[in-house]
C-alpha cells in the first residue's frame, strides 16, 4: 500500500476506536463513578455522555481533515508529520486504556480497538515511516531533542 493509503488508515482506525467508545461509554460512566474515590471525583470530575460524544466527534474529525489536507497539498511533509504526531497521541491513548483496564480490573470502552487495532497499526506505521523517511531527519531531531 502506498504512503497516502496507509496514512488514510489513521482516521479510519480512529473512527472505529471512537465508535467503540461512543457506544459503550454511557454504560461505563456509572461504573467509573462507583470506582473512583469521592475526593477524586470532586477534584477532576467526569465528563457527561454528551461532552464525551462531542470530544469523540472532534478527535475523529481532526485526522480526517489532516488526511484530506495531505491528499490535496503538493508539499505533503507537514500534513504527514501532523498525522504521525496524531498517531503518537493515539499510541499514548493505547497505554491509557491498558493502564485503566489494569487499575480497574475491568474492560474500559475502547480497550479492544486500542489493543487489537491501534497498537499494532502504530508499531507498523512508525516503523514504516522511519524506514522510508516520510519526514525529514531534521524535523524528527528537533522534536526528539525536546524530550526528557
Oligomeric state of the chains? single chain
Q: State the domain count.
A: 1
How many H/I helical runs? 6
Distance between the termini: 35 Å
Shape: elongated
Order of helices and strands: HHHHHH
Q: Tell me the major beta sheet.
A: none
Total strand count, please?
A: 0
Class by alpha and beta content: mainly alpha
Output the radius of gyration.
17 Å
Any low-confidence stretches, pLDDT <50, length ≥5?
A: none
* Relative strand content: under 5%
Rounded mean pLDDT is 90
The amount of helix comes to over 70%
What this model shows, in words?
With 148 residues, the chain is mainly alpha-helical. The chain has one domain. It is 83% helix and 0% strand. The relative contact order is 0.14.
Amino acid at each position: 500500500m502506498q504512503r497516502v493509503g496507509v496514512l488514510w488508515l489513521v482516521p479510519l482506525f480512529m473512527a472505529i476506536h471512537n465508535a467503540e467508545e461512543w457506544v459503550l461509554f454511557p454504560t461505563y460512566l456509572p461504573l467509573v463513578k462507583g470506582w473512583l474515590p469521592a475526593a477524586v471525583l470532586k477534584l477532576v470530575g467526569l465528563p457527561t455522555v454528551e461532552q464525551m460524544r462531542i470530544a469523540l466527534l472532534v478527535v475523529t474529525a481532526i485526522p480526517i481533515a489532516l488526511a484530506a489536507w495531505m491528499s490535496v497539498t503538493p508539499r505533503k511533509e507537514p500534513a504527514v508529520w501532523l498525522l504521525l504526531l496524531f498517531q503518537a497521541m493515539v499510541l499514548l491513548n493505547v497505554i491509557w486504556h491498558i493502564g485503566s483496564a489494569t487499575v480497574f480490573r475491568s474492560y474500559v470502552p475502547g480497550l479492544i480497538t486500542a489493543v487489537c487495532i491501534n497498537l499494532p497499526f502504530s508499531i507498523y506505521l512508525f516503523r514504516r515511516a522511519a524506514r522510508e523517511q516520510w519526514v525529514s531527519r531534521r524535523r524528527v531531531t528537533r522534536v526528539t531533542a525536546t524530550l526528557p
